[in-house]
Amino acid sequence: MLPLLRDPATLLPSLAAASQLRALHAHLLVSGCLASPSHHAAFLASLASSSPTHLSYARLILPKCPATLLAHNALLRSLARGPRPHLAFSAFRDLPLPPDHYSLTFLVRAATALATAAAAAARPVSPELGLDARLLAVSAHGAAVGQGHAVDPHVQSGVVSMYAALGDVTAARAAFAEIASPDVVCVTAMVGALAAGGDVDAARDLFDGMPRRDHVAWNAMIAGYVHVGRSREALRLFDEMLKAGAAVGEATLVSVLTACAQMGALERGKWVHWYVRSRGMRVSVTLGTAFVDMYSKCGAVATAMEVFENMSERNVYTWTSAVSGLAMNGMGMECLELFKRMQSAGIQPNGVTFVAVLRGCSMAGLVEEGRACFDSMKCKHGVDPWFEHYGCMVDLYGRAGRLDDAVNFINAMPVQPHEGVWGALLNASRIHNNIELGKYAMDKLVAIESKNDAAHVLLSNIYAESQDWKGVSRTRGVMKAKGVKKVPGWSAIEVDGKVHEFFVGGKSHPRYKEIEMMLAEMIRRLRLHGYAANTKEVLFDIEEEEKEGAISLHSEKLALAFGLIALPEGVEIRIVKNLRVCKDCHDYTKLISKVFNREIVMRDRNRFHHFKNGACSCKDYW
Ligand code: ZN
Ligand code: ZN
Q1: How far is the CA of 390 from the centre of ligand 1 (A)?
Q2: pTM for the complete prediction?
Q3: How far is the CA of 445 from the centre of ligand 1 (A)?
Q4: DSSP per residue over 127-180, as a string?
Q5: Cβ proximity of 463 and 471 under 8 Å
Q6: Domain boundaries, the chain
Q7: What digits encode the pLDDT tens for the residues 571-606?
């Protein structure tokens, strides 16, 4: 007799042909191996999970088998776990018997698998199947309620995971609230749903209350912090995760590297690289891309390119990270070269790639190349330009001093120009001192009444400058009414592997007394070199941070003072800022680099500024 009573699946994969399968089935029937319902169920489950051919065979023979729910549930479970979970729905519909809580648990799992696949493809519809994952999820939940199994703990837990996978935090919360004592899987799913939905504090409360946590919960929490830009908390939690001895995998490290990139925490990023090497972990395309991204965003573009060149597999995200890294660091020619290589390698660029290439062209003054690249987007690559691409084009012309071309370009836009476009024109007008054009751009910005915080702050500053206090309060009123939230500015600096964060006017740093003294010393020495704080030139200064008398305390100045105190002479000071650096801070930093004889690298929202001996690599156009 065949030794496959316990697990016929061990034999099944080798039986590719339907004829062989029929022979095996006949043999099992004759020898009495399928006499008991549980053996029959096991046989069907193995069939269903081994291959699509076997699955169709299972579905063919199922109606002819002894009608046990066990067999049907086995099939449902296999279908839910398999590569085509949507088949569970038709199997459920065809059930000859009333479903039990197992049937519904498997159906909900199938819906979860579809929702996960849809989320991975960033589409509401499950990839390749054309099925609306949300609709199926709701129907699975509805079936559970209708059959009276919605209060079963397994079903309940599954429903929470299902809505979590769909990204529907409200539905997940409602389902979670119904559960008397949720298990670890269920709480983890809820933590994941809350964290992914941006409610990291609620997720953290739940996470802290868990008696035990697996790596899935840690990863969800760390990724949640990174997602909302709270990188420092992400890194702190990662330290706790290491202490707790939870399994650190690729998903964790990708989040940690993203946090390092956000904070410019190069030392921590390097540590992750060491960690991966020392453990002999495989560097997948995702992890490799995260390294390229981290190194380029931390200004270590040579290392980024080294990692990139050594990767055996690269996808569009890998190429885009590398192209973007070169662009951010002002290496326009290299950026274009790499973009050409990307196309030769047969990788189709996406919208993000084009933003990077256009920025690279703009910074290197490659106007014609940038224009050609923009023109190729739609016709050659089938990528519709976003507002950002139009803004890049205006910036490209503007930087080159071709203001007429910039205006003509805006007038020829097939879509209504948005604030980014007018903002770029305003910036160009400021740099090339074209007051008329600047006023024109400003009027357009006012007319749009955009929800953009930077535009509003700029506007409010402009009113303040012309002493139009009614205008100021009107703008503030509009901001409040529209719910425009200003992003608080921060700057980060890494000293001995520890990231120090500074906020505008912040005094909370433990070494604030020293920082304050250093700031006074900096101003004293700068004044000797003729520095005067730039508060007048507001009209053409696109500001993201309010001044309100706190100009000397913009966060990058605090970070700079701390860098001068904490880092030994001759060591480059590296600062990361979340917003665009203002004109005054830029002038100030240039002068500091000369007076204190320090090289300073500052990454603002768009690019790197390398300050050396009184000059900046951006040549004052940013
Ligand atoms: Zn500033
Ligand atoms: Zn600069």
Answers
A1: 27
A2: 0.76
A3: 22
A4: TTTTEEHHHHHHHHHHHHHHTT-TTSHHHHHHHHHHHHHHT-HHHHHHHHHT-S
A5: yes
A6: 490-616
A7: 999 999 988 888 888 999 999 999 999 999 999 887
